[in-house]
Amino acid sequence: MNGKYWCYTGMAALGLLHVFVFSLMLRPEVSDEYMDYYITRETTMSPLQRRMLTPIEPGESFDHHTVAIGFDGWSFAERDHRWSLGSSAKLVFLLDDAESAADAQHLVLRFATLGEQTVQISLNDEPLLERRFDGAEEVELRIEVPDSLLQEGENIVQFDLPDARKPDNGDARILAVALKSFSLS
Domain range holding 114? Predict the structure, then answer.
């Protein structure tokens, strides 16, 4: 066997290795949470943040700094609030059992808006509210939760914000809602 044979064999092996590595890049074997956060960027809530969620109880109030609930599609916590980013945002929370879910009759949200904003709120994919806010002052919304809409385990409050925009102060973020607190009562 001559040197050309080993050269071509080595190049073929290297080529196969590249094809194998490229195929792994196209279809990585990772968890859905990892895929959504690190690869497809479909969520802004990291797998670590998701693992840090703790079950909440009706009657507890959570401010915008809490780690007990997840903030997907929200900016970092500022001193007084946390801004939604873009035209949708989610609050993700856990309920320990069916009794906690049955005890909660209202979703209570305290927030302000960036000027006039239409805010659509749904819980576990069921629409609860669509309202236009003028942005003049902070509001506290107390939204009735229909029976059996809350569930044991993960629950998601979805904000759809079709009027989200950049503020006039040079901030490049697309903003709509400045969340201050969240609770179930």
Answer: 52-184
Q: Is residue 25 part of a domain?
A: no
Dist. CA 143–CA 22, nearest whole Å: 49
Give the residue from 49, 50, 55, 53 showing the smallest Cα distance to 95.
55
The H-or-E segment that residue 147 falls in is none
pLDDT at 140: 97
Residue 170 C-beta-side C-alpha neighbours within 13 Å = 0
Question: 178 by DSSP, 3-state: which?
Answer: strand
| Residue 149 is assigned to a structural domain of this protein | yes
In a domain, 58, yes or no: yes
CATH number of the domain at 149, please: 2.60.120.260
What letter represents residue 60's amino acid?
E
For 8, the token pair is 């071509």
Number of domains present in the structure of the chain: 1
Counted residue by residue, the chain has a size of: 185
User: With contact defined as beta carbons under 8 Å apart, do 180 and 64 qualify?
Assistant: yes
Q: Is residue 20 a part of any domain in this protein? A: no
In the chain, how long is the greatest CA-to-CA distance? 84
**Which band of pLDDT confidence, cut at 50, 70 and 90, is reported for residue 27?**
low
Residue range 99-150, pLDDT digits in tens: 888 889 999 999 999 999 999 999 999 999 999 999 989 999 999 999 889 9
Instruction: Tell me the pTM.
Output: 0.82
Contact between 57 and 101 under an 8 Å Cβ cutoff? The reply is no
